[in-house]
Amino acid sequence: MRRRLELIRVARSMLVISAHAADFVWRASGAVALHTGVGGEAAVVSLSYGERGESGSLWRRPGQTIEAVRRIRREEAEAAASILGAAFIPLDLGDYPLAVDEEASGRLVEIFIETAPDILLIHAPEDPFNPDHPVASEASRRARLLAMGAGGAPAAFPTIPPPMMYAFEPHQPDLCRFEPDTFLDITPVWAVKEKALQAMGAQAFLREHYTERARQRAFQSRYAGAGSEVEYVEAFQRLTPEMRSAL
Amino acid sequence: MRRRLELIRVARSMLVISAHAADFVWRASGAVALHTGVGGEAAVVSLSYGERGESGSLWRRPGQTIEAVRRIRREEAEAAASILGAAFIPLDLGDYPLAVDEEASGRLVEIFIETAPDILLIHAPEDPFNPDHPVASEASRRARLLAMGAGGAPAAFPTIPPPMMYAFEPHQPDLCRFEPDTFLDITPVWAVKEKALQAMGAQAFLREHYTERARQRAFQSRYAGAGSEVEYVEAFQRLTPEMRSAL
Amino acid sequence: MRRRLELIRVARSMLVISAHAADFVWRASGAVALHTGVGGEAAVVSLSYGERGESGSLWRRPGQTIEAVRRIRREEAEAAASILGAAFIPLDLGDYPLAVDEEASGRLVEIFIETAPDILLIHAPEDPFNPDHPVASEASRRARLLAMGAGGAPAAFPTIPPPMMYAFEPHQPDLCRFEPDTFLDITPVWAVKEKALQAMGAQAFLREHYTERARQRAFQSRYAGAGSEVEYVEAFQRLTPEMRSAL
Amino acid sequence: MRRRLELIRVARSMLVISAHAADFVWRASGAVALHTGVGGEAAVVSLSYGERGESGSLWRRPGQTIEAVRRIRREEAEAAASILGAAFIPLDLGDYPLAVDEEASGRLVEIFIETAPDILLIHAPEDPFNPDHPVASEASRRARLLAMGAGGAPAAFPTIPPPMMYAFEPHQPDLCRFEPDTFLDITPVWAVKEKALQAMGAQAFLREHYTERARQRAFQSRYAGAGSEVEYVEAFQRLTPEMRSAL
Amino acid sequence: MRRRLELIRVARSMLVISAHAADFVWRASGAVALHTGVGGEAAVVSLSYGERGESGSLWRRPGQTIEAVRRIRREEAEAAASILGAAFIPLDLGDYPLAVDEEASGRLVEIFIETAPDILLIHAPEDPFNPDHPVASEASRRARLLAMGAGGAPAAFPTIPPPMMYAFEPHQPDLCRFEPDTFLDITPVWAVKEKALQAMGAQAFLREHYTERARQRAFQSRYAGAGSEVEYVEAFQRLTPEMRSAL
Amino acid sequence: MRRRLELIRVARSMLVISAHAADFVWRASGAVALHTGVGGEAAVVSLSYGERGESGSLWRRPGQTIEAVRRIRREEAEAAASILGAAFIPLDLGDYPLAVDEEASGRLVEIFIETAPDILLIHAPEDPFNPDHPVASEASRRARLLAMGAGGAPAAFPTIPPPMMYAFEPHQPDLCRFEPDTFLDITPVWAVKEKALQAMGAQAFLREHYTERARQRAFQSRYAGAGSEVEYVEAFQRLTPEMRSAL
């Protein structure tokens, strides 16, 4: 299809920051798989395991303990990240509520410095349905700025060039002021995303929900020029301006 | 520079819709030159010549007439478009106020059908300092929709695929709620843009103003990852979602 | 379920204003069926038949004519309205583009006076993907105000009390700044809505699309307190304040 | 009047969270009285007594102490809550500035679990004229989410169904981006509200101010269909979608 | 009071544009009286007499005719303007609906050229409760731009310097996204405003309503530094930037 | 020029709160110089020296230490403030990240009480390119409210009348939702501002950048009525309503 941009680029670095262990799998794993599929490096930071508030099926088992849930979630998320070809960096900060103190913030800044990401995927700034997602979003944006310094000039600390930053879509996009402006065709890596979804041990209904979501986004993408060969799409919203050499 | 997207694409079609003859030259001619420079086709629709309200230097001449101004403006704009490698389509609808009636709107839809643009550059939706720019913007967006039909399904009239639509920047961006999200490096075609600016016979101070503007945008682009080799930039705001095969 | 409001009211009047003949069926027919199901009166105004831009399947037939399409669409929409227990009032103003001139506007005001609606369902104010929907929305809101007069005081023309006004959801809600704030449980009338959908002779994929939409809205409604017995939901956005005797 | 919704429901639970002891009396006590008047349960949490910044008349007395002010404010607010038929839960967190630390936040979550409110009334998110109101609003919304869990699925902690959440109106609504969308007719309980106002020992001018405010809101309600029998109104803004079985 | 700006200026020109004959009296006559009181010139354009929709008390009289209402409204408005020391320019364009066609727009531009206003007072851009006010606001802003030309440069028509533009407050400010940012102390001319209100022959309840409004705005002004000597205030919202020689 | 407001006032107090030592010099020193030039008192609070993130040229020197940078920045900022006739109050809270804890907040409130400012200049609320500026803005607004009390009534602590509050412009105004609404003609004090810029030892390119910015703002001011004698302008956005005795 002539309308789609054909992007060719050398391998670059991608960083994804997820409030709970599963968030990135539902909503951004296609982007990760596309990126690593062409030789890019990717790392996923999971601020918490979502062990208290988002591990419903595990808590249904009698005698369940927080340690066991944390371990299982870690194993699942590592498996999912591995399927996607991404490193998995858990920070284990706890959930419901998630808090990112100065020490954790410092660790996050270090990860920015170490990975020097070109592409950054984070939670959307607003989510009136989840107490942890905006905290993760704010901490991510702040760490990005601290790792960048004031931009251009030398500083008293190591800095990185500004990563292009996107929000992946919230669970309830139209109640979070999320306005998708970038539709990513993940059809070529759909099989990989499906495996990652399965690795999370997620309830069948959520797998179905996000499979359907990817199809609805593909439907919507026709209005952005996608043809019928586009079957699965992930939606993103740009949070920073993009530098381009062509429109 | 690794951070910039490297875009390779086949030649495509670009359409620019300008309220007055000079608007596109100041704010979008770099984008046009980049596009035609790699073999793309481009057409500029000028809804009016700006003969009444935006031809200041011409009206300083004693004995000036509206016909003469219109002719001079047409010649200048044709020359500028020619330098940029773009077709020039004047609709001569009058300015201050510009009005786009149903006949003119129909002509605009025809132009969309004829040019089937992949990229559409229009005025920003708001401009509290200019009576004609929002009229041009609204007419452009409406014609695009009418030329697209309801999207995907057959209709009783010919349709085109949805063009990716950008607003070029207003004269006073921060008073028009214009939020640039796309910085286009026009350094490679700056010499061409300068020639186009000169062709407009514009006052020196406006040429200086927009030269300085392009430098300030380049300065700003460092925060979007541009290096020091980026000297001139045009800023745009996306008005439609973009279909991508990679972030 | 204790959380849901239990509303008991005498039969009232509902008015729905649809740009094209099918719009109200996809997105508001559950609300109409619920309303008429308890004895309320309902009327649907269809500003156009959508004969040019939204009758895709009909235009695939060889030798198709505009008159035939108009007639078929009218019959289908009348059938759908009849299934819902609503009157059908076609204004036949044409589509792509839809225009509501002063005469049509006057007719719309008359319909407001005649039906004196308590509940008004219209298109959302914004829709960057459809040229006719915002025109229909604006015309609807204007006619409502003209029919109301200045509020409270006598006027030189007959007036009605202010109808409570809702927008039904656009085809692409999260790209139209549509923020659903009212989830209507249409599970009890889903069978009726399905029949109305079939009456439109609509393509199978659109029926599936809106069936899935109703299920996704039900899923979303759990966050507004809906239980698992809520299977199908239509989403609306209130455009006027609501007078209440209890929260 | 046929236009008003007639709501009949079983007794439910209402929770009001007030930054200072008097805030809920001025702006939400009518809603509380209506609720308890039909058998509903209500509890008012007062995060502080407003002892430092909002006890003007008390600080005019010579020799006044912070302990005495705190005690008087507590007694007054308890009396007001008692008149309204609501429990009063002071958290005594201090005012100007009010801070809600993790311990206080945990207490607030417990109160949500204990009261399992159907209706939640809180401060509006923005108030550029008061340092404590946005803090109270944010803490209330966060505690609500923490008490809800991720919605639907089991968690490692007890959860409640999502309460319908409203903001009561700020002292200066049109400078706080407060857009009232729900007008509550408190005429039937006006006498109760008047008593509650008097219990606060408030200055005469504030009683007059809010009496006049309730009349102006009633005047405004005519545009939402209220008749002349509606004399006193409290205005609210919905902060969550509402689940309905009829429009 | 030291905090208030002390403005001394030579007499200047003020233009007020009112959709109906009474609008300017309720909401901007204090500003006019202050302006003319120090020697400024003022003109009020009334686009219509409000003869159909806003002359309630007149239409209660049996046998009333549109001509008689128009005449009475004109006389009343002229009397009010005269009390304020302002010229009254009725355009008689009709109301409910008000329409400003190209001829009327041209007349409006001429009035701008003739009066060359320094200060322009118009309706707020949004009013979901009145069909004519946004039409008046849009026509006023457009005429201002047409009279200004492109700003600075000569044009083919006479131009004026840019007037500072304010919106006076709508009837229901907090439902019109009106955010007052300028509080004008009209205490010194309150007696004049009262006379103008009486000249309109307006119903007692509206006079009371706007008297109370002016007192509430004065109350609100304390938060902007007003002392107790400020008893009556009119609120405005700036629609253009202001040029200042001091903050 | 007749159009400009001529303001005459007695000397008043101005407070400027700067996140880093240089911020106020680039963007608000003209306002300070105008204010002190007519006898006003001014104080500049610098929350940090910008020693880590905004002292690029100093960190280029080999063997540089944080103590030395802090000292040099302090001396430069004191010199700049002295040139402007303003007191300089460094709080030395550290930068990248800047944090304002309760103790620092208390100190800030004390400074408000001590200086009782009529005019307050702070950072704009949003800046997606700088981690410290929004922190400084929020801390400034909060301290202002805490110093004001609840407005009008006595409190348990000393209070001040509400200062008029402006945001000075961010480094990248059109990416910070900064909408300038007040253009201040600083031409008369440009020579003073230039000296202050030089005192900061700032890189030549930033001096040039802000000199050009002041010229562009002057250019823009023509649309707000400025004549050609206005050569340098600083732009501000009002954050509080203004009390006026004339428009």
Main attributes?
homohexamer, 247 residues, alpha/beta, Rossmann fold, seven-stranded mixed sheet, 15% strand, globular, disordered N terminus
Give the low-pLDDT segments of chain A.
1-11
CATH C-level class of chain A = Alpha Beta
Number of strands of chain A: 8
Q: Of all protein chain pairs, which has the greatest interface, and how many residues does each chain bring to it? A: A-B, 47 and 47 residues
How many domains of chain A?
A: 1
Question: What does this molecule look like?
Answer:
The structure is a homohexamer of 247-residue chains. Chain A is of the alpha/beta class and 247 residues long. Chain A has a single domain, classed as LmbE-like (Rossmann fold). Chain A contains 7 helices and 8 strands. Chain A has helices spanning 23-37, 56-59, 66-84, 102-115, 133-148, 190-199, 204-221, and strands at 13-18, 41-46, 87-90, 119-122, 164-168, 182-185, 233-238, 242-244. A 7-stranded mixed sheet of chain A has the order 3-2-1-4-5-7-6. The longest helix of chain A has 19 residues, at 66-84. Chain A is globular and about 55 Å long. Mean pLDDT of chain A is 91; it is low at 1-11. At the A-B interface, helix 1, strand 6 and strand 8 of A face helix 1, strand 6 and strand 8 of B. Strand 6 (182-185) of chain A pairs parallel with strand 8 (242-244) of chain B, so a sheet runs across the interface.
